[in-house]
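Hey,
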Amino acid sequence: MRDMSYNRSAEHFSCDPAVIEKSHRRSSAFGLDQNDKPDIMPLDRSSLSLLLEQNRVLHAHALPVMETLYEQIVNTHNMVILTDAHGVIVHALGDDDFLVKANRVALNPGVTWSEQSKGTNAIGTAIAEGVPTTVHADAHYLSANHFLTCSAAPILDYQGNILGVLDVSGDRGSYHKHTMALVRMSAQMIENQLFTAAFENAVTLHFHSRPEFIGTLVEGIACFTPGGRFLSANRSALFQLGLSQAALHSHTFSSLFGLPLSTLFDHYRAAAPGLLNLCLHSGVKVYARAELRLSNSVFQHYSELPSLPAAAAKMAARRLSSLRYLNTGDPHMATLIGKLDKVIGRDIPILIAGETGTGKELLAQAIHNDSPRKSSAFVAVNCASIPETLIESELFGYEEGAFTGARKKGGQGKLLQADGGTLFLDEIGDMPLSLQARLLRVLQERVVTPLGSTRAIPVNLAVICATNRNLRELIAANLFREDLYYRLNGLVVKLPALRERSDLDVIVDRLLAEAGSEGRCCSVAPDIMELFRRHSWPGNFRQLSNLLRTAVVMAGDDGIIRLEHLPDDFLEDVQAVPPLAVAAVSTAGAGSLEGLAQAAVRKAYEDCGGNISATAKALRVSRNTVYRKLNQR
């Protein structure tokens, strides 16, 4: 916190004397003398480069946390330090006025701060003890470090092993009792991020007894195999579950939460599922959300989940079966599908544009299923949902030992997983510039080189991209490569927003049929259907699907969705818009309601400068409605 009042009196300092005394004895046993001049030689350039590469994942997750921590202590004569598991500094951020002093004892990348090298110090002692440690002033073993005050916390991997250390070091006069709390919180943030990223083929559950704490530092995180077997849990999860890692390995998702894993999969078939309500084996009720990272494809469609009930999987497969199923009578969609039919299987890249929620991944899956590659993999990657620091290894894969935390046999990237099939790159506009160049090279040369490898592996795949952003504007802003844009847009198709489609009735019927597969069957009252046609649906299909699923539950045995079954926010939005802005229209042509509607459309059309799309948006009706009213005589 920038306004934190840092107490400069060492009299308020406290640390565990027993820990310091034990560390001093170890330091003496290492052959160090308190008056020794510390070794401040960093690693040579090549060794430092290797250190950074080996700790790439740790550094990637720690850097944003370090920057946030530094903002909280800036201008307090301190610096934030990240080391590897052996106490070698990987990265450091600090105040300029303190860096001069820090250079005297080499608080720089490549310098080792283990107890063997520097004696008692917060970094080395935290590694030796395996617990957060503060070392202040003359508690340091070497006299040369007595001007320092340091607070360090180990960063653990999902198995409880030390990956590195996060430390705040500063001038002894800058000591504050809250520094250690900030360091511990920041280290736990890094641990949680590393934990979530560690399991590629797993169900990751985030839970807490208070829903507002999900997604925060104190949430419990537990991972399970696709079959429900326990894999690992973070510190908060261990505390909430009241069991050790060793004890949890005899458990499953079902034994811990009292529900089969298939129930979780069913929950996430909703377009916008809310939090789960679960009950721990101890009887404590918790709220939860889950991430499904299964079959090496992040957020694959639920039809591919092995535990999904057969009936649900069959329906999901039917939804994704073909372009023909998506052709529901809207002229725009019919034209779009006609274009796609002509290029499928001809190695022409396809770029799908459209607002969020218009069904871009659904369309991409249908294109794949209608292509000669349908028997091979469809691999989806959301370029916006994967951290920028991890997307390179996600796409290209990595060799064994390429970085700290890398699996023994390496990891196969999405490009190689899609070999023979289709790679779908969603939100391509959010791909980092540095990776755009590598992707372009893959598309041109059709070879992939994993991280840490010199092997160029041939790859044969079709590429479909999607974006809700204007790529030409990104090119103008130097955020997207123009050469990659022209390599990806062999055919560009734009999915219409839900408000622009003329097949709303068919869409509603199909979504209700899916909701009916869960044991309920409903229809929509005519006046409610009219409200649906008036609404702008900013969330598109996701919003409509979620609204209908909730309305079906609210309607219960009534079987008809009425006004009282709709959420308040939807009613507020739709009632705020007059049916066709009739009040703004002159009485000319007001011989009938139809005449009023037609006049309203023509007036809006003139006000929008003859732009059909702008008129439809202003009136919150479909483009087809505008065309129809304008052409009426």
